[in-house]
Amino acid sequence: MTTLAPGSMNDLLPDDILLAILAMAQKESGESYFRFEGHDFDLQRVFRELTQEFALLRNYFVFSSGGPMPYSPSLTESVSRLQLSGMVGRENPEYEFLFLKPAANEYMKRLEPKLGADATNELKKVAKAFLKRVVS
Amino acid sequence: MTTASPRKDLERRVESFVSWLFADFSPRVTRGPKVINDALLGNQYFARHEVAVIDSPLLQRLKQIKQTGLVFQVFPSARHSRFEHSLGAATLAERCLTAIGDRASLEGEPSSVPPTRDRGDLAELRMAALLHDVGHGLCSHLSEQIYEAFTDIRAFEKDPDFVDKSPGEILSYLIVHTRTFRDWFQGIQDDCSSKLNIDTVASMILGRHPDPQKLFLAQIVSSPYDADKLDYIARDSLNCGLALTVDLPRFYSMIATTTYNEYKVLVLRNYVPLEQILFSKMTLYGSVYHHHKVKCLDQMLRAMVMHIAGNPATCAFNTRGQALAFQHAVDFLYVTDDEFFSGQAFGDKVVKGFHDRFRRRDLLARCVEISRRTVVNWSSPERKSLIDLSAKPAQAVELERAIYEQLPAAQRSTAHPSEVLLSVPKPPKLKGGFAFIQTDQHAAPEPIEQYFPLEQWTDSYSHSKWKSFVYAPGSLRQQVRDAAIDVIRERLGLEVDKDKSNQACHVS
Question: Is A13–B395 a contact, with Cβ atoms under 8 angstroms apart?
């Protein structure tokens, strides 16, 4: 029988990885209010570059082979789910800036033990690289 | 003993399905092209080889698969099928291509596509649109939402060639790629003197084209403003009685192509037509696809199907000689809506119970609403645990079971666990790929988000319209409500305000 794919409450989703990167980037930036240009096409470009540099991300964000622009549906869906989860929002009135809500950092405290030391260290490097690539 | 990979297994099963479908079919080739009249699009013209494909069991079975699944139980006139939608997509695909040619001519550029329905680009475009939904099975997207979590279809989710495609599109591609279909189609081509590259047709179903300069053709079949959406938005809204407008003449007048990173891509000269498409899509989500009764029906079908899948020895059923128990993604292709809901006599008590409920439109009742207006600590990080369930179906089932187990023993004995259901919809997918605006032929193409706040709409929908529900038999509403509120607090950390939930669900 083809079964439902296995999983548990503790399985990490791509949006967990995205949230961890954003929370670590905020910490790295030292900003109490962390925002960055976050149109879908901006993030797709940035994460395409990051996946080429950091192997860990390739487990979560696979980019389509078709077309002239990088596109990973799991990245778009992750942003949507983080919005729906109340972790990130978009600034009025332009909506081009994404910002982290207080719930994101609270959630991050629970996420850290699930990530493990190796992944945490790797994601800190990703977060630094992310900060260099986005306009905040 | 070695076993084949899940992907190879799936390809083999798709081949078996197509062989089964064509087993007793004698191809008929008509003497000439046909005109088929459609309530939405009027006269539609089909070439001889297209009529042969339309007459084939691959397309004919789509007449028995409703475009919007069980929505007709809520919007009674929504009984349109994947069949007329597929014909419509082919017609609209040609209209898009014609419009591109007209725009090119208007702007002083020659159109590179000869308008011939039986060979070359237009023929392949129309055939890809005609075949784009042959991978749909029982209740269209409903079954897709169930089998997308099966391991065989998930073998494709990390493949760059398939990652951006839905399970139904992947199955359509695999069907067109089968040896059985290709051999049959070649026979039709020989009889009709048509000349199409079936590999190109299959690629276009996935939104790909072997020639980067012809990517725009594939985008007409699969992209944020493809012929599929143009048809289903107009058709779904018409049949649900929603007065939504997609101004197709204006859309056609604005569609063009340009070269971007060595690909020839679709662009719009103005964002208004796309804004209409997306606004209509958003309205359809809020009013139809995520309607609380529609979500209840979705969950009832999911529970029924998963009960069959979990008990194949007692629940397997037979469709035209094929024993089925929803063990694999392809199983959902063998059975159509009409066969499943009308032609089956189920012996298993639970399955029969659901079957009777569908027949009598006896829906489960809303017991709890979990949303911004009913959850006290909606801004807390706990909300993510709920939203995560939309991506973790096995864990959502665990939560349902926990709610059932929380019921007092007396009530528990009156219901089956599969009658306590949780709906956690995914956020609406408004765009799904890249879309460009190019205000004139000399301007640089820009992403659509530069022109209007597409992502804000998702944010706004999530903020004000998204809801999760717990459903159960009407006789157990209060008990399931209390059990669900307890379990949601204990397991997810969300505090549901009982009075507000009662008000939302009309529970006394």
Answer: no
B375's tokens: 């959850």
Nearest CA in chain B to A11: B392
Nearest to A2 among B150, B164, B429 (CB): B150
Structural contact between residues B391 and A7, judged by C-beta atoms closer than 8 angstroms = no
**Chain B residues close to A9, C-beta within 8 Å:** 385, 392, 395
Judging by DSSP bridges, how do beta strands B42-46 and B317-319 pair with one another?
A: unpaired
Distance CA B243, CA B237 (A): 7
Q: So what's the ipTM on this one?
A: 0.91
In our burial notation (b when 16+ CB lie closer than 10 A, e otherwise), range A56-83 reads ebeebbbbbebbbbbbbbbbbbbbbbbb
**Domain locations in chain A as residue ranges:** 8-134
Rounded Cα–Cα distance for residues B496 and B15 (Å): 49
pLDDT 10s digits, B198-217: 999 999 999 999 999 999 99
Q: How many residues does chain A have?
A: 136
Residue with tokens 């600590």: B377
| Cross-chain residue pair A104–B381, CB shorter than 8 Å | yes
The pLDDT of A34-49, averaged and rounded, is: 93
Cα-to-chain-centroid distance, residue B202: 18
Residue A94 and residue B453: Cβ atoms within 8 Å? Answer: yes
pLDDT digits (tens, 9 = 90+) for A61-119: 999 988 899 999 999 999 999 999 999 998 877 788 999 999 999 999 999 999 999 99
Report how far residue B463's alpha carbon sits from residue B371's, in angstroms, rounded to the nearest whole number: 9
Interface of A with B in 35-94 (CB under 8 A): 39-41, 62-69, 71-74, 76-77, 79-87, 89-90, 94
Measure the CA dihedral B338/B133/B124/B50, to 10°: 10
Token code pair at residue B66 = 């409703």
Torsion-angle region of B20 (φ positive above 0: left; ψ -120 to 50: alpha; else: beta): alpha
Give the start-end residues of each E strand in B24-170: 34-38, 42-46
Chain A residues close to B163, C-beta within 8 Å: 62-64, 72-74
CB contact under 8 A, A107 and B432: no
d(CA A44, CA A51): 10
E strand or H helix that includes residue B265: strand B263-268
pLDDT band at A3 (very low <50, low <70, confident <90, very high): low
- Integer Cα distance of B311 and B325 in angstroms: 8
pLDDT number for residue B226: 92
Q: Which of B157, B328, B434 sits opposite A2 (nearest CB)?
A: B328
Residue B90 scores a pLDDT above 60: yes
